[in-house]
Amino acid sequence: MIRKYNGWLAAALLLAAMCLLASCAQAQGKAHLTVNRNGTADLNLDMSVSNEALNLLGQPDLIPQLISKLQAQGLDAQSYTKDGSTGLTASRSFQLKNMGISGVTAKLPDGLEAEHSSEESFFYTKEHIAVTVDMEKLMASSSDAAGQQLSAMNPLVKGLVQSQIKLQFLLTAPVKAGASNANEIQDHGRTLVWDIKLFEPNRFEVDINVPNIRHIAYTGGAVLIIIIAAVWLAVRTYRKRRRSA
After folding, report:
1. Domain assignment of residue 130, given as a range
2. Is 236 helix (H, G, I), strand (E, B) or coil?
3. Which of 90, 130, 135, 231 could be a cystine partner for 45, CB 3.0 to 4.6 Å?
4. Which residue ranges traverse the bilayer (predicted)?
């Protein structure tokens, strides 16, 4: 009986300890991808982790390690400290024409899937893009100790950790986006916001209607010619009637 009581007491103490640890393990981050009209894109990252969380993970140098990896990928990355947290900012610009979807998907690691399809109409082309990100698979396949630690946690601890982490992905398009499964829409439909879950697959879907400028110009030009011709005929008819009168 005493052993059973001690077992329940130990479990209660463990749960209380996990709640206390989770309350300290706060982290937040945003990844913002802005697609420009000139065919370029700008990626901006901002994330911070409380110093308590870094110590609990046994990874006090996690932010410098991430900065080194981001710099190796061509990003301009820097660290900062604020209100008991350590964070990083990183940015990079891309030429989208150099990033074909087939070439990108062929290099994706386990845990990342990308889909792309196009549907053409006369005035625009609907580009459907879908990306599935399984953070747990990515962490499990990672060589980083922190990622493996998070992946190996039991479901209860994962739930506590997830409740203290806020991660978001923002996509800003040069035109108003079409249908999507975004959690939030900003900037009159141009910016979509998705919440990212660490221990569940995340799926991002969006339709972008790209105007067919050539067809629109041809149609607009034809309409303009018809209007000019109609006005000219109306004026000519009016003048003839005046002369006849």
Report:
1. 26-224
2. helix
3. 90
4. 216-235
Residue 13 domain-assigned (yes or no): no
| Tally of structural domains, the chain | 1
Query: Encoding tokens for residue 114?
Result: 């990308």
Note the pLDDT tens digit of each residue in 210-233: 776 554 455 455 555 566 666 666
**Distance between CA 24 and CA 18 in Å, rounded?**
10
Place of tokens 């990108």: 104
Secondary structure of residue 212 in the 3-state scheme: coil
**What is the pLDDT at residue 187?**
92
pLDDT band at 67 (very low <50, low <70, confident <90, very high): confident
Q: Is the dihedral of CA 175, 176, 182, 184 positive or negative?
A: positive
pLDDT over threshold 50, residue 145: yes
Inside any domain, residue 119: yes
From residue 96, alpha-carbon distances to 40, 207, 212 in Å are 6, 17, 18
Using CA atoms, how far apart are residues 56 and 21, in angstroms rounded to an integer?
A: 8
